[in-house]
O-glycosylation ligase, exosortase A system-associated (Pelomonas baiyunensis), 439 residues
Amino acid sequence: MRDLILLVIIGWCFLQAFRRPWIGIMCWTWLSIMNPHQLSWTLRDQPFAAAIAGSTLLGLMLTKDRRDFSLNRENITLMLLMGWFCITLPFSMIWEPSFDLFKRVMKIDFMVLVTLVLLNSKRHLMLFVWVNVLSIGFFGVKGGLFTVLTGGSYKVWGPENTYVEGNNEIALAITMVIPLMRFLQLQMQAKWAKGVMTFCMVMMAAAALGSHSRGALLAIASMALVLWWRGKNKVMGAVGMVVIGGALLSFMPAEWWDRMHTIKSYDQDESAMGRINAWWMAWNLAKSNFFGGGFYIWTAQIFALYGPDPNDVHAAHSIYFMVLGEQGFIGLILFLTLFCFAWGSASHLRTQGRWQPETQWLSDLGSMLQVGFVGYAVGGAFLSLTYWDLPYNMLIMAVVGRRWLARKAWLREPEEPLIVWPQFMRGWIKNKRLKAEAP
């Protein structure tokens, strides 16, 4: 029955994508983030994402819906990063697995560009946020309930055969989605809906703690600090965070506390020292190879050449050193630039969206996206989620929201301007507005 329902939903999205390709984008996002077919009995190996991507691309060419092919700093930087991947690929130290990973990463990045073309309305953006939240929220709420019922004695894991299969990876994904849930809660009117969302956010935090991930703990702490700093009532905010945090931590067993205490004594922890060894390996490789080592370098063969301890082979466990080792210093610069631009667009939404009631939702979105980016920056320093969809989807939200805000500022001249235009520009803008509103 589960497989049949899944087939019906995907089949409907496949057909709709020809006429409304933005529906294909929503389905692609759902399949890529949640991987619902991995929860089925017989459909796990079916290429549903490829089928939806194909119908969406065909719909992109046939649709009469609005499409936005404009260039902005984010999509230009992403295209430069994709171009750099193509340049570094021939220099891969281990070719075949690097090429396989290259194809996967390029598919994800290409669909990010397609999404930026197809999403252009508030309706699209809100649905896109909901799809991302529900895709991870399913595992987060379920994992939170599991943590509470078992007293945190067992680790929370992600879905098999996905980017977030590991406990560390699913913890970071859950952490990044919590601010998006808060954004949706701010848009709700019904008290019961807000209450349900509060419960879900608490369960998400419990699941992140239940993963026993030290990186997730640091990410949650950093996000909580940002939320407290930006809050209007800092005293009540601090009290609320202490109460909720204390209640959640009270469920965690002694082994959880022992693992978290290793953050202070990292030099005595084998896992932490293995990560540091991998970071030094990436640094040494990037210094010796301008183009990096390719998408597949975390092997004994490469560690024997560049690792301080050649026998201690670990994955990067860091978005920064992962890019550095695989794509060199140029790749790292482009990667950091991309998300710095996304942070800037979120900041623009946060500051400019507050001027009008009709754009306050964008201010909320920008603020929560920045909180999510803080979680990604801190938690990602200890986890390998460099190429996964969710951070790039948050970038899409910032870009689409900024374009929507720019169109509003262009077509209307609010009493308190969204953008403080020079005096000589105001008459020209007014003329553009009148022409746009003319029949």
Q: What stands out?
A: Residues 180 and 326 are 30 Å apart (CA to CA). The first helix runs from residue 2 to 19. Residues 411-426, 433-439 have pLDDT under 50 and may be disordered. The chain has two domains: 1-65, 71-411.
